[in-house]
Amino acid sequence: MQTQQLMQVDNRQFVIVGSGISGYSALRYLLAQGLAVRLMDSRQIPPNAAEIKSLLPATAIHFGGFQQEWLEQCDVIVLSPGISPQQPSIAKAVAQGVTLIGDVELFAQACKKPYIAITGSNGKSTVTSLVTELLSSQGIKVCMGGNIGTPVLDLLQQKETEMYVLELSSFQLETCPSLAPVAATVLNISDDHMDRHSSLDSYREVKDRIYQRASYGVYAQDYAMEMHSHEKGVVHFGVEQQQNTEFTIALRHQQRWIMQSDEALIAATELTLPGMMGELNVLAALALVKPYIRDMNSVLSVLRSFKGLPHRCQIVTENAGVLWVNDSKGTNPGATVAAIESFDRDMVLILGGIHKGGSIEELIKLIRQRVHSVILLGRDAAVFAQALEVHSCYSVPDLMAAVKLSNECANQGDVVLFSPACASFDMFADYQQRGDSFMQCVQTHIVGGQHVV
Fold first, then answer.
1. Cα-Cα-Cα-Cα dihedral sign, residues 81, 86, 91, 95
2. Which of these is catalytic: 48, 62, 188, 193?
3. Of the candidates 437, 438, 450, the residue with the CA atom closest to the CA atom of residue 406
4. Residue 452 above 50 pLDDT?
5. Residues 343/275, Cβ–Cβ less than 8 Å
């Protein structure tokens, strides 16, 4: 689908589809520009319903379905990222010539300040947060948003900001042709959202759009670089030392070191982000901020103190020699693979939920090599049980049962890793609630009311 460029005309009619965080933000933004706006949502009682009713007349609101006439008669549809452009009502309107964009496109057209754009199947929230802290350490007034935290259009209200850092999902990248970051990266690609994208190639094509108008491209060393024009160049990062990889890992004096070309910056043991995935996140962040580094000592200080984000390989506690780790953000097999590889210990793995499609072959192979016990729960537990066959796996009805059984299976020196490889919506509102529930179960059953780290 070709998303058209938004024409700057004063009498356009906008229809916002979806009233969640981004839709509500787009509504406020468009109204502030004095534009004609309608809003619809398929839910009878959607998020922000009361606030929307206070901003729009009843005749400009439609809840409980899509109003096809509005879609076909408007000039521009502003589509929330959770709704597919292939939804029949949307696709029909676009086929008739209606322009389709998202809130990130509105941001890209309005933004007058530089911004960095980050995407990938896994690690993008961590890298976005780390890049923000690194830029701040250089005295730059910076704020982050997009798929993490603040909606992009709300960022424009922060007048003192000198630079933005955006985390962008594939859903957001589908509808923002004007995106022109000063630096951009695709951290990695693995099977994810195959329930929305038709194939892995299609998913990758959408992710790769982040580079199309970027001034500076940051590429993982195993990511085939497409032919994009980068005014300020290209830099590669990766854990293997290769000729064209500027930010990498080297073994010096029996220690792993973060390297920039031939310069050893910091020992991997000084990083608080665990394992290879943590190292890759640091390498990517350094590559993205390279043009802005003036004080390397401040950069290294941030790397030593940055502890990552909740629900991303988050250490909950170590009790009786067993390390308990919350990786509820592991919502696809690739994320769980990265989490398993982050710990050089025998392992009990808790996984399951709503499988989003795509291959689990690599995950199953790694489980057989590295995990001695698998605890399964959630709607699609059988998908993993069938693939694992005779491997030691057990099905449980809920998280508390998973924690109790994991404790029985774990030996001293093990790690119990909660990395579901699935979406959470069969049992929880989101991955945050799922991760909080896991930590509470550990608190209740394992720690017994003591403080968890």
1. positive
2. 193
3. 438
4. no
5. yes
Catalytic, 290? Answer: no
- The residue range of the domain holding 349 is 314-446
Element of type H or E holding 142: strand 142-146
Each residue's pLDDT tens digit, 235-248: 999 998 888 899 99
Domain count, the chain: 3
Please confirm, yes or no, whether 193 is among the known catalytic residues: yes
Cα–Cα distance measured from residue 18 to residue 15, given in angstroms and rounded to the nearest whole number: 10
- pLDDT per position as a tens digit, 278-325: 999 999 999 999 999 999 999 999 999 998 899 999 999 999 999 999
The residue annotated as part of the active site, out of 48, 122, 147, 188, is 147
Domain-located, residue 453: no
* Average confidence score pLDDT of the chain: 93
Note whether residue 8 is domain-resident. Answer: no
* Residue 173 shares a structural domain with residue 59: no
Give the C-alpha separation, 284 to 238, whole Å.
8
Using DSSP, state whether 418 is helix, strand or coil.
strand
> Is 124 considered catalytic here?
yes
331 in a domain, yes or no? yes
Select from 68, 101, 134 the last residue of a domain.
101
User: Of 48, 62, 122, 124, which residue is the catalytic one?
Assistant: 124
Reported pTM: 0.88
